[in-house]
Write a structure and sequence with these properties.
9 helices; mainly alpha; single chain; elongated; about 240 residues
Length: about 240
């Protein structure tokens, strides 16, 4: 396999949205959002019923919203790809010399030159299907989106958001008569889950386990603490 073939073979898996990225997106967003609301509400009131209503409402709204956003954004990527693909097909017919020069420019950036460069340009331009895929991936830096991917992405993100949103609520069920203990337990559990998500992401994608875990932990709990500060100051403000 040539060096160019290695590049083309290895390009696609890194560009596609993966199950892992969808799961992390939904679970982290749901967990942090509901944790922030939980901390904010409990900083302003000790009414357990109000806390449950607010957090459950956030769980439902956030899960639907995140799933819908994942669906529409992935669908938009698919539509953009198809539109650009049609434009490239037209240009390959109308201005083939310009398109060949764009192929040549990409290959020159990879270190090809001379007869080897011209040979590769000829081989690609003699195969319209390969030529088109090359231009989409390496000139426009776009990747195809399967017609099922928008639904799959929306489904995974939505379910992951439900799962992440439920994590802060577990402590309320474990300590139904002690709201303070429930909040402390929720922060501890959420911190552990956030660290685990970061650790697992590093294990799959590469990088330092502790660094990724702590990074996810700090970002998540920092966002939740912002909710606590807002609830605390609003709850302490007369007339609000």
């Amino acid at each position: 396999m040539t060096a160019m073939a290695h590049r083309m073979a290895g390009h696609e898996p890194h560009a596609r949205r993966s199950f892992l990225s969808d799961f992390i997106l939904g679970s982290q967003d749901g967990l942090v959002n509901v944790l922030g609301i939980l901390l904010g509400i409990t900083a302003a009131t000790s009414n357990l019923r109000l806390v449950l209503v607010a957090t459950l409402a956030a769980l439902g709204a956030e899960s639907i919203s995140m799933g819908a956003v994942a669906y529409t954004s992935t669908l938009a990527r698919r539509l953009v790809y198809r539109s650009e693909e049609e434009r490239e097909k037209q240009e390959m017919v109308e201005v083939p010399d310009l398109e060949r020069q764009e192929v040549r420019t990409v290959l020159e950036e990879w270190g090809y030159s001379g007869e080897q460069l011209e040979s590769l340009v000829r081989q690609l331009s003699d195969n319209p299907r390969a030529w088109l895929k090359f231009m989409m991936a390496f000139e426009l830096r776009l990747q195809p989106v399967d017609e099922r991917e928008p639904l799959n992405s929306g489904f995974v993100v939505g379910l992951a958001t439900v799962a992440g949103s439920a994590v802060p609520l577990v402590s309320l069920l474990a300590f139904p008569h002690d709201l303070r203990a429930a909040v402390v337990a929720s922060v501890v559990v959420c911190g552990a889950v956030l660290f685990t998500i970061g650790w697992y992401e590093a294990r799959i994608t590469g990088g330092g386990y502790w660094r990724h875990g702590l990074q996810m932990l700090v970002i998540g709990l920092g966002s939740g603490f912002a909710g606590y500060l807002i609830g605390h100051f609003l709850g302490a403000t007369p007339g609000l």
